Please model this.
Amino acid sequence: MTQGAKRALAHYHRIVIKIGSALLVDRGNGLKRDWLTRLCDDIAALKEKGVEVLVVSSGAVALGRTVLHTHPGALKLEEAQAAAAVGQIGLAGAWTEALKAHGILAGQILLTLQNTEERRQYLNARATIRQLLKAGAVPIVNENDTIATSEIRYGDNDRLAARVATMIGADLLILLSDIDGLYSAPPHLDPNAKFLAEIPVITPEIEAMAGGAASELSRGGMHTKIEAGKIATTAGCAMIIASGKIDHPLRAVEDGARHSMFHASHMPVNARKTWIAGQLLPAGTIHIDDGAVAALKRGNSLLPAGVSAVDGHFSRGDTVAIVNRFGGEIARGLSGYDSDEARSIAGQKTGGIEAILGYPARAAMVHRDDLVMTLHETAGNKDGTHA
Model:
């Protein structure tokens, strides 16, 4: 095992681990259960140290191919979807069994591109995953290959893993692969390829180092890993590329097995807040009282109790302008409610919302993670204007 820097994974709060198809499935023998068992040993060890873990697991199509005895090479869309339908059952069962040995629950999440790109579905998926993590479960995420078409799909789980990592606010993404990190050129083609242990920022030169897909069981290659790195690091999530071709691959990273570390952006929050504040046209307006204004300035979420009025027609997840009692905009954010719901619960205490809506509701009208202060009130400008 080539040595690298030791990495204390227990220092991270929430880790997303992506598993490549070739690591989980052997083309001739099917699922690699022993390897999966040892990986789950590593996951259990992290959870015992208080780390929340989410897995993005490839392998449904590859596993289904071994069961259906499909022909070698690329599959037609309907063939791949049929293989995924068969393989996904076995894959979910294997994860459930391996984690259950440690007393850990597994929860299956199947996503399509639309689920993460359409804001309302994104929020629903995020809420579900967060609830699973809160319950102490390990969410097992995969692309829903049984219904995704070639036009609307990720096509690889590297970028899906990065999207999921940013969705749930993970601080580390680990891509386990059949290669131990990033090289200046494909090492199997260039014996002089240089290994890169630390990548402070992804430059055009780094992107140019990416190669192609490694095998018929994997749609991803180094190119998709670099794309994943751009998604993750921009959002403040560090990323590791490490080999999964060994037993206990997470423990190996901690013990100093060679890997490439992509550093997180130093200003991830600003980038996200700028996106919310400047790139989306508000679909409506939420008027708040002075107490709510003070709460937002302290970094809190906007609760229904502080809302005095709601204007416009918008859906949950749409951008809304948040204004003070003088009509001056002080913030923008993504609404946690449809406009009709928001109007019905405006001014209400959290404990009374369920009785009004008829279902258990979210505490925040706009969660602080989805909110950015846009203007700061200046003394003397009571009308909401600014000098």
Q: What stands out?
A: The chain has a mean pLDDT of 86. The chain is about 35% helix and 20% strand. The first helix runs from residue 21 to 24. The longest strand covers residues 14-19.
